[in-house]
Amino acid sequence: MQMKPHNAGSLIFQTLNISLLGLLGLVTVFPFYYVLIVSLTDPTEYMLDKWTLFPNHWSLASYEYLLSTKAFLRSMGNSTFLATVGTACSLLLTSSLAYALSRHRMSGRRIVLMMVLLTILFSPGIIPHYILVRQIGLIGSLWSLIIPALASGWNVLLMKGFFASIPAELDESASIDGSNDIQTWVRIILPLSLPAMAAFGLFYAVGYWNQFFQALLYINDSAKWPIQVLLQNMLLSASNTDLEAYDVTQQAPPSEMLKMAAVIIATVPILIVYPFLQKHFAKGAMVGSVKG
């Protein structure tokens, strides 16, 4: 049976489309796969063949060594502090400001909204930002990576759109029952805003976990480095002399294997959190972006 021209063209397009997307997916996944394989290869086998794509002997030596070093555990603790405390503080400030701006009864609402818009349109730059952080005495503190980045004007506007989609009659009903604005926000609005909170919480958590440039500017003590700064230092150095294992008798795997294992450890926490928030994340991002 002879195939019609338009069906043949459609088949060719689908074949090329699938082939190109498959190739793109392979190119995207392969570096992560190679990093994972190298980090799990037995050190002896890696020294003999550094380009293996499927080792004969597997080993967790790189992870065991990294997780026994003081510097790496400290940096993981610093990044965990930034991601948890920073995300909680950012969600508190962003949601409270967005809720107030979504209600027309707020005094000076237009002025505050204009100030939020100005932060999106104009950025002071690196030098004024550094001077501000230094003047308020945050240089060398982990709070220098949290307080200046507590709220994003864009996130405030998106969350404001989400809160505006919640009927104002709920506020009026709560007010009749004797609830003030804060009680209404905590007991009624926030429980209804879990999709938006999950979506923006993920945004903030990824941002705090990936803190790098600001940490280079404001953190001078290597003991307070987040994981991304330590990882960058490891990747640029030929050896890992800054890592000191608790067990001095433990032999360090090759530096390349330690670097690959560090990349995996720095990536996995976000990959673990994302699937649990994916449903709320998709819903919250959509609603917050289309409601005004």
Task: Describe this protein with a few key phrases.
MetI-like fold, 2 domains, globular, mainly alpha, 292 residues, disordered C terminus
What does this structure look like?
The protein has 2 domains: 5-59; 62-290, MetI-like fold. The protein is globular. Helix content is 70%, strand content 0%. By secondary structure, it is mostly helical. Helix 4 (70-102) crosses helix 7, helix 4 runs antiparallel to helix 10 and helix 7 (153-164) crosses helix 13. It is built from 13 helices and no strands. Residues 288-292 have low confidence and may be disordered.
What is the topological layout?
Blueprint: H1 5-40, H2 43-48, H3 61-66, H4 70-102, H5 109-121, H6 126-135, H7 153-164, H8 169-176, H9 181-192, H10 194-209, H11 213-218, H12 227-236, H13 255-290
Helix pairs in contact: 1-13, 4-7, 4-10, 4-12, 5-7, 7-13, 10-13, 12-13
Short recap of the structure:
By secondary structure, the protein is mainly alpha-helical.
Number of helices: 13
> In the CATH hierarchy, what is the architecture of the largest domain at level 2?
Orthogonal Bundle
Low-confidence stretches: 288-292
Report the sheet with the most strands, covering strand number, pairing sense and barrel closure: none
Strand content: under 5%
- The geometry reads as globular
How many domains, in number, for the residues?
2
Tally of extended strands?
0
Q: Round the Cα radius of gyration to an integer and report it.
A: 25 Å
Helix percentage range: 55-70%
Alpha carbon gap, first and last residue: 55 Å
Structural class by secondary-structure content: mainly alpha
Tell me the name of the CATH class of the largest domain. Answer: Mainly Alpha
CATH topology of the largest domain: MetI-like fold
Order of helices and strands: HHHHHHHHHHHHH
**CATH superfamily membership of the largest domain:** MetI-like
Mean pLDDT: 83
